[in-house]
Amino acid sequence: MARPPRKLTPDRSARHLFGADLRHRREAAGMTLEKLAEVVCYSRSHLARIETAEHVPPPDLPGRLDEVFGTGEHFVRLYAIARHEVHPEKFRRRMELEARAKAMDEYAGSLVPGILQTEGYARALFRVGNPEASPDEIDEKVSARMSRQLLLRGEAPPYFSVVLDEMVLRRPIGGPTVMRAQLAALAELVDTARTTVQVLPFEHGEHALVSGGTLTLMTLDDDTSVAYVESIATGLLIEDPEAVSAHRRSYDLLRAYALSPRKSAGFIRAAMEAPS
Q: What is the reported pLDDT for 151?
C-alpha cells in the first residue's frame, strides 16, 4: 500500500510555500513526480524533497517549472525569497546587503570565494568539512552555494573585483581535474565589463591581510559602505564607517601590489598547466 503524501505546511516559510505550490501545480496538471522528473531533468526523490521543503530548489529549477506549468515568473520570484532560507541566520544579513550592492571588492587568502566557486570545487570543500554528511546534505549545501552566483548574472549585477592570494591557485581543491575547471572559470572573469580578478603572488611577502580568510567590501545602493570579514568558522559584518574605511585602505594597498588583470590571466593559465 502506497504511503499517503506528506502533509504540506505552506505557511511556515517561502521554502515551504514553494514546495506546496509545486505539488499543487503538478497535481492540477495531472503529472506524477516521475513524469515531472523526466521533463525537468531532476530525480523523483529530489523533487519529492523539494515539495516537502526538505531541500531548497536548485537555481535552474524554478525557470524550468515556470516553463512547464506556464506560470510566467512565479516560481522564479518565489525562489528569490526561498533561496535565502538555507543559509544560517547570521549569514542572511550579508546576503541582504549583497543584493543591494552596486560594487563588491574582495580579498581571498586561501580559497576561491564562494560566489565564484564551481560546483565541483564547492562539493569537495563541503565533503571534507563534514565527512559524515549524507549525499543529500551535501547536495543541499552545494545548491545553496551555487544560488549565490545568481547575483553576478542578473540584469544589473554589481561591479565585482577580487584579489586572490597565490595560495588560492596553488592548493588543488578536489584534485587536478576539479581545480583546473575552477581555474578556467576564474580566467573567464579576469577582465570583463563587470568583473576583475587579480593575483597577489607569494613574492610580495607580508601584507595587512596575510592572516588568511576573506575580506569583502560592499558599496550599497545608498552609497554607504560595509565590510565583511570571514575566517574558518566566523563571519563579522562591520558597518562602522571608520572601521570600514580602515579595511578599505588595506584592500586598496593590496590591490596596488597585485598583478594587473592581464598578468593575472597569464598567471592563472600557468597554474592550470602546472603538473599535478
A: 87
Contact, 162 vs 217, CB < 8 A?
no
Any idea which fold 14-84 has? 434 Repressor (Amino-terminal Domain) (1.10.260)
Domains of the chain by residue range: 14-84, 89-273
Q: Which portions of the chain are predicted below pLDDT 50?
A: 1-2
Does the domain at 89-273 match CATH 3.30.870? Answer given as yes
What is the spatial distance between Cα 226 and Cα 245, in angstroms, rounded to a whole number?
Answer: 9
**Per-residue confidence (pLDDT) for residue 120, from 0 to 100:** 96
H or E stretch at 205: none
Distance CA 248, CA 242 (A): 10
Residue with cell 569537495: 124
First to last CA, the chain: 54
